[in-house]
Amino acid sequence: MTDGADAAPPAPVGVAGAESRADPEALAAAAERLGPESLRSALGRDPETSRSVRQIQRRTLGVLMATVAVGGAGAGGAFSVVAVLADEITGNATLSGIAAAGMTTGAALTAVPLAKLMARRGRRVGLRSGYLLALVGALLMLLATVVDMYALVLVGMAAVGTGSACGLAARFAVVDLSAAADRARTIGLLVGATTVGAIAGPTLATGPFTAVAGALGLEELAGPFVFSAVVFSLAVLVVDRGLRPDPLLVARRLGGGGDAVRGRGSLLSSLGVIARLPPARLAAAAMMVGQGVMVATMVMAPLHMTDGDQSLRLVGFVISTHIVGMYALAPLVGWATGRIGPTPMIVLGGVISFAGAEIAAHTPPDVAWGMFAGMFAVGLGWNCCLVAGTALFTAAVPAADRVPVQGAADLLMSACGGIGGIAGGVVVAWQDFQFLSHYSGLFGAALAGAATLAYLGNTPGVSRRAPRI
Length: 469
Fold this sequence. Notes:
This protein is mostly helical and about 475 residues long. It has 20 helices and no strands.
């Protein structure tokens, strides 16, 4: 596959005409434009349901956009008060921080098992199971507010993290049937849909649902977990009823989704696939660096601002601005990735992450505007790395290995987020936020440099001169 800079978007009329006339030259041109997997999808119908693959893909995109919006709201609602609940139970700030890290830990621990389940049973069963586990986690958190048991908070928040893992897995599911030239744009649309839940979730959970908890005879702090349980139930329903037919199973019936037996590969073998493929290595590095820089700076930014006596409301506005940078511009990032290619967008993502972290590093604790600009840029850099990295990764990994290897990539990314969060606290305790933000940003600069060298060189699957994968 080329890097995508000169890839033309598929032309439905031309492809349809090639199908109807069986013109070998037109089919060859379409194959060059879309790639063999995408050509089968563009021309095909699902042999089991007789539905057009294009129609199935449109439905899949709509269902998954609704699902990640709802699922993101559930995860955000639970996360918004988990540290408060843990502190109320234990009175220990360190234990509160560990509880808050439970969501990232849960996402990392369940990424590979979810991918293996999807490889065996399809996307619908995997995502439904993940959101069911997240629902159980929300109920355990709700129970913890009643019995004041810290262990339930830890287990419950880790289970809620499965909802985050499902949101990450959905960006791969949404391109199972997508044409190669449309992958980046489709991923961008899906990531953009997360904006709704990421912003609305904490607001609804800590607002109207505190009154709902009171009406149920529970304390106000239970409200966010009631909210999470409700919306995770909705996510389960949307996936179960909407993701029919299953896009991965349709891709397999068309010969483009790999074999289910390949999903039983070990984590070590999946990591080996990533290590062997230069574009997969670059894509995984982009997602890992973007996640690490984002989490390390985001979790410590509120503490930096409160050290300057800035109000909690202003801190909340900065975090909201950061979330907008992470999600709201994803459709534009996806479109741009399709136009210039994933590798140049990874370069841009590294540069933006570096610039945002540097702006934050040079902002005194009592100055707000620098934190607004810096945290927005860090979020946007993460956005570019995630969308472009996912598009490059999907193109690089062979279809037969794709699903379990995607789970390994998400494990690496989530683990980097967890390490970034823990390291952030340690570094700030040792030095200060400026030190943390500066050296975190250097990872973004290193990513941009590595991606630039790969792009200008003759790295297969990454450079401008690389053959189509």
